[in-house]
Amino acid sequence: MRGLFIIALVIRISSVFVIQTSYVPDETWQCAEVAHKLVFGQGHLTWEWNEGLRSYLHPLIFAIPLTVLKILHLDSAGMVVLLPRLMQALLCFVGDVLLYRLVVKLYGHVQASYTLIMQLSSWYLFYVSPRPLIHNMETLLITATLNLWPTRYSDVVTYPSIILASVSVAIRPTLILFWVFLGTHYLISCPEKRYSSVVKSAVVGLPTLVAMVLLDSHMYGRPVFVFLNFISFNLVGSGVYGAHPWHWYLSQGIPVLLGTHALFILLSFLKHRDYPRQFMGVVVVTVLFFSVIPHKEFRFIQHLMPVFMIWAGLGVHWLSRHVDRSSLFALLMAHSLLNAIAAFYIGFFHQRGTISVVHDLSQTVTPGDHVIFLTPCHATPLHSHVHADNVTLRFLDCSPDLSRGSPDLSRGSPDLSRGSPDLSRG
User: Fold this and answer.
1) If you average pLDDT over residues 192-216, what whole number do you get?
2) Residues 241-262, mean pLDDT to the nearest whole number
3) Which residues on adjacent β-strands are paired with residue 408?
4) Nearest to 21 by CA among 341, 297, 355
5) d(Cα 250, Cα 262) in Å, to the nearest integer?
């Protein structure tokens, strides 16, 4: 299996250099920009940070490589952009290894190999692997926790699994649904372990969550409960960024994320009788929950990808026992080629302009320059990519108006026809 791991490492590192496009503003504004401000003192915090909707743990992790660059005086604009992306790609590789180990525990090495092949051939996972999105971190934490979660061969809840689950909820509160479902399923399946499991969760989980509150409160400089703030806003006002029909995840989100993987997953459901059914429940509940929330995006259900890849791997395993090796190899090659073409186009060409212009800007600005971005809000990265001293960067502000107690979109689209458009200084 060492050869497959080497291939996985090469694929993840190569994504750092192949992916040259913009996906969503959060990949820079909610992590890289915050980390840049923490380390270098330059950076703009969006309205979410003023409202206490984000945990500092995630950007603090990516502040580590930036701190190393600063100490070693190697903090060129290129290195400041490259190193966090490389770190994220390596974290995704860790997730690949952990997913393999999980499937080995559940089924065996053969099924684990097919699952890893499905994981590495996913156009979407390649597309997001170098991007420091919180959704990559939540996916990693879920995969790591499931490695420690009770399986069919063990009915013991471990302290590390509770800690990791608690951290994942602290940085991404919507994951509480994932763990509440699996925890409830476990308590129903193992009634004799209910008391000890609840005690363990209280003894370890609550202090972990308190520690996260203390960390965020220290970083914000005031008492902050990110979990409550995040849930409150996303249940009431997430539509400020657009609303989608209730069926969006079923009709568009999941089909686009899975692509050709959906065929292997369907085969798993039809032919493989031993797929983990508790995962089916958590997927259904999660999709139903996110379908109720008005604003929907592909990345919001990214943390379900490990489950999807396990199902796809089981489908391939069934095929391997019913078709000859040459036919299976041809099928997997065609599948991988289609995903590679999609990943390359979307990752190298689609929405590349906003990244290219900031890269060129970082090479041309000089101390004392003033730059104004007259683009849709947060369309381009800022200090995390320009990384220049004594340069003023300003951009159009479209923060939602929260003064009335609920988000108001009246400020969502700055009017360029006005004499003085609403500008924010980074």
Assistant:
1) 87
2) 91
3) 401
4) 355
5) 12
